[in-house]
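Reopening this ticket.

The earlier resolution said the output was attached, but the attachment link was broken on my side. Pasting everything inline this time so it's all in one place.
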Amino acid sequence: MRQGRPAARCTACEFEWHSPAMADGLRVIGSCPRCGGELEFAADGPMAIDEEPIRDVNPSRVLGLTKPPR
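Inline output:
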């Protein structure tokens, strides 16, 4: 079952996030928590926080626990 257009997508590993809350958290991190790749966001997705991305933050502090890649 397809969930429609993702709110965020990694350009390297092509993982997709469909939750607006996850996309907002990814904006804070600034890179893919799975592979470190660059992220692209849907134009109609949540607005970015008016801050620079926080580097060297554990992704689980922003996104919660995620399943490891297979």
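Reporter confirms the inline version is readable. The longest strand covers residues 8-10. The chain has a mean pLDDT of 78.
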